[in-house]
Amino acid sequence: MRTVTTRSELRAAVAAARGRGARIGLVPTMGYLHQGHLSLVDAARAAAGPQAFIVMSLFVNPLQFGAGEDLERYPRDLPRDAALAAGRGVDLLFAPTVDQMYPAGEPQVQVVPGDMADRLCGAFRPGHFRGVLTVVAKLFNLVGPDLAAFGRKDFQQAVLVRRMVRELDFPVEIVMGPTAREADGLALSSRNIYLAPADREAALALFRALSAARDVFALGQTDPGHLLTAARDVLDAEPRVKLQYLELVDPESLDPVQTADARSVMALAAYLGPTRLIDNVVLGG
Fold this sequence. Notes:
Number of helices: 9
Strand content: 15-25%
Radius of gyration: 19 Å
CATH class of the largest domain: Alpha Beta
């Protein structure tokens, strides 16, 4: 694996790979890698085929952090990440500085999403998805990938990236990998490192709540109110969980559903102490 830190090195390495007939797969991350990120390397390689050349980006993007959020303390460990990426078969690691990504400072031209970005997480993190889509668009232009892999845990992000690709005609296939979980069900997140032991235990209520709703759906219940109540009852029983939102939405529009079906997504965000976690499940699987 080769590690590069500049846009010119990135473009040269990708151009050389493409000249050898490679199909380029991109795995964008903010680093502090876990098994979820590494599983996206596998997904990208499988989708790209035998001529795959996998680029992983490590960049903590300041545009997607709001005032008072954890930009400065977000976990960073480039040597650790490089070892994990190399061990999983990443071909090129792109680890730019903020100045390299935004040499003129915060870009004046950004990707501005519509009202889909104002729901779920966006209702509590104004401007977050503008920052996400702007950096993803920039990475697409720098790398020129044939495909890019995103995780289902960041469900709203993946939906908006797919919408941007479709509506702005980026020639990129979007691959969505499943949510990676610990053995006890907690969704993997770089922010899990923040959790105190008692909060780590309490965080298990998030997946238990989503699973309870999914179980009720499997028994034939399609009324959103009943399904949300099944999940909320589990969350209410854990006093350490401070729920931010719990919603049942359409997987494409993110609109609240009137009648649940197998494609419907139940998504939540909650605080455990100072740590904000998100999770979601598709009711049908």
